[in-house]
Design brief:
TAT_signal, single chain, signal, 425 residues, five-stranded antiparallel sheet, 3% helix, Quino_amine_DH_bsu, mainly beta, DNA-binding beta-propeller fold protein YncE
Length: 425
């Protein structure tokens, strides 16, 4: 599963973004520009059971969210200021008071509703919440759309939506404190039927007592959603003074010297837990940190030190740590699949064994890393203004093999490869 910045990932979760401050206001959205030809292979693709050629990728670009065809190299459409829901079936776009919903696969316009101003804060398969840009405020007005007529929700406090529960009954939010000049926040649950805010539960499903809700000052870096278990994992770096709920309940810091953690939020069961990461995680630049999820394995990598670790999502414990080698300065990305862990930062890509974390291969990219995605038989790697096709075991370039229909996909203004999937054909 591809990691995202916090705002992106939480918008995907039903409002996924990282659990930190929000991004700046998105540019005014325009209708998608469709079927712009970028590059076609010079010959018909050859058949191979090993490599998936039919598929599509989604990427953030300077022009908006781009959807490209892996077989032809065409950019099917670009959606300025748009976000996709977690399963990449729908794309939502807010444009001058209209909320438009598109089918992600073919760009079909599904719905076009009046929605007022603001920003898309969180989405699910059926719901969208729109709210004001981040900033000091003591009351927050939100618009809920997608389930009948849009309705207004007025909440006390400085509230930033994060994610919907799978049944759409609960909206997870950041409650920023103090509202008029926030310097910290806590994650809470809003009952949408009652418009009432409540605390989350602990991992053992006990209600957090008053005064012991965790208040975070950490910087949310990336998040990944497990759409099967409905659990959101968000990577944070934070200040030394940060205390978890379990620390507050115990009256002491139970994990001194910890500078980073993964916030685990169960969207179905309304509990949260923080998986502490050992030093040196959190000591380097936030952008050097990344995470990836594959099955029950959660990976975290710090490019500034070269340290990687493996944790189990079943018991939320760290089982292995290893050095993969420092990477050049730059934003870090990770992906996992097919028995491999892939990490990239700057112009360096490393392939490691997914179970042992033993390095297996490394290569230089032709430009700064811009995201990773694993598909059967190939690794997609964003680099500068293109997405390369690489051998998943060695990192060797498959993009030069145009006769096999494996040409690179040029994406001018590429910012981050977000997702890739196979399709029939």
């Amino acid at each position: 599963m591809t990691p995202y910045t916090r705002r992106q990932a939480l918008t995907l979760a039903g409002g996924a973004a990282l659990l930190s401050a929000c991004t700046a206001e998105a540019p005014r959205a325009q209708p998608p520009s469709a079927d712009r030809h970028v590059q076609a292979p010079s010959a018909a693709p050859s058949a191979s059971a090993a490599v998936s050629r039919s598929g599509r990728l989604f990427a953030d670009t300077a022009a908006g969210l781009a959807v490209a065809d892996l077989l032809t190299g065409r950019v099917r459409a670009t959606y300025p200021g748009a976000v996709a829901e977690a399963r990449w079936a729908r794309i939502y776009q807010l444009d001058r008071g209209r909320l438009r919903t598109y089918q992600a696969g073919d760009g079909t316009l599904i719905d076009d509703l009046p929605a007022g101003g603001g920003q898309i804060k969180a989405v699910s398969a059926d719901l969208v919440v729109i709210g004001p840009p981040p900033g000091p405020r003591t009351r927050t007005t939100l618009t809920l759309a997608g389930d009948g007529r849009p309705r207004t929700l007025r909440l006390a406090g400085n509230i930033e939506p994060e994610a919907f529960s799978p049944d759409g009954a609960t909206l997870y939010v950041l409650d920023r404190l103090p509202p008029a000049a926030p310097d910290r926040y806590r994650v809470r649950a809003c009952d949408l039927a009652r418009g009432r805010m409540t605390a989350l539960s602990t991992r053992d499903k006990q209600q957090v007592p008053p005064g012991q809700e965790e208040e975070m000052r950490g910087q949310g870096r990336q998040a990944v959603l497990d759409p099967v278990q409905n659990i959101l994992y968000t990577l944070y770096t934070h200040q030394d003074a940060h205390l978890h709920t379990r620390d507050l309940a115990a009256g002491t810091d139970l994990s001194p010297g910890v500078h980073a953690f993964v916030h685990v939020l169960h969207l179905d069961q309304r509990w949260a837990y923080c998986l502490d990461l050992p030093a040196p995680f959190g000591l380097g630049p936030p952008e050097a940190h990344t995470l990836a999820l594959a099955g029950t394995s959660l990976y975290v990598f710090d490019a500034s030190t070269g340290r990687a670790l493996l944790a189990s999502t079943e018991n939320l414990t760290i089982s292995r740590s290893a050095l993969l080698g420092k990477a050049p300065a730059g934003e870090a990305f990770a992906a996992a699949g097919g028995g491999h862990l892939y990490v990239a930062a700057g112009t360096r890509l490393t392939v490691a064994d997914a179970r042992t974390l033993a390095p297996q291969a490394a290569r230089d990219l032709p430009g700064p890393a811009r995201g990773l995605a694993h598909l059967p038989g190939q690794l997609l790697a964003g680099a500068a203004d293109q997405v390369l096709r690489l051998d998943p075991a060695t990192g060797a370039d498959l993009s030069a093999d145009l006769s096999a229909g494996l040409g690179a996909v040029p994406l001018p203004g590429l910012r981050a490869l977000r997702h890739a999937e196979t399709t029939a054909g």
